[in-house]
């Protein structure tokens, strides 16, 4: 649905709004990166299994494990220890995930009022976090041992934050300070 919405409506409206001479200049979604940090995995090797499976079911794609780049004694982490998992979504899986995120997961988040415009990075990319991964319907609440958060990065081909914001607004992203 999102991909069709983008092709049919959003490209035309953004082309008119920003006076692009070519359709290829219109900003588009490039990829969505989802990261789930698992601090417990540094001491317990089996602690990564459940978040790994949860992220796999949320994204619909197998995640990769992330490892510590250096040792930090304050966090009891050694270099090379597993500290989380991540997945990068592109094309159809990306659009499916964003649709589930906007219409199902975000409305189920506690105290969610929308995103701030300050979450753009200055180059047209948008990053935010979700406090509870149980907002997704794919997660069975009875089978999880701990509620975890997720970091989500949306990478666009937009040159500026203004263009990226218009793209995300057209995709029905909830911003509270327009």
End-to-end C-alpha gap: 24 Å
**How many structural domains are formed by the residues?**
1
Largest sheet: 5 strands, antiparallel
Briefly note the structural class of the backbone.
Answer: alpha+beta
Estimate the global geometry from the Cα principal axes. elongated
- CATH topology, anyone? 50s Ribosomal Protein L5, Chain: A
Q: Count of helices?
A: 4
Q: Work out the radius of gyration.
A: 18 Å
List low-pLDDT spans.
none
How does this structure look, described?
The protein has 178 residues and is α+β, with helices and mostly antiparallel strands. The chain has a single domain (2-14, 30-121, 135-153, 162-170), classed as 2-Layer Sandwich (50s Ribosomal Protein L5, Chain: A), CATH 3.30.1440. Helix content is 31%, strand content 19%. The protein has a 5-stranded antiparallel β-sheet. α1 (2-18) packs across α4. The radius of gyration is 18 Å and the shape is elongated. It starts with a helix and ends in an 8-residue tail after the last helix. The mean pLDDT is 82. This is Large ribosomal subunit protein uL5. Keywords: Ribonucleoprotein, Ribosomal protein, RNA-binding, rRNA-binding, tRNA-binding. One of its GO terms (cellular component) is ribosome.
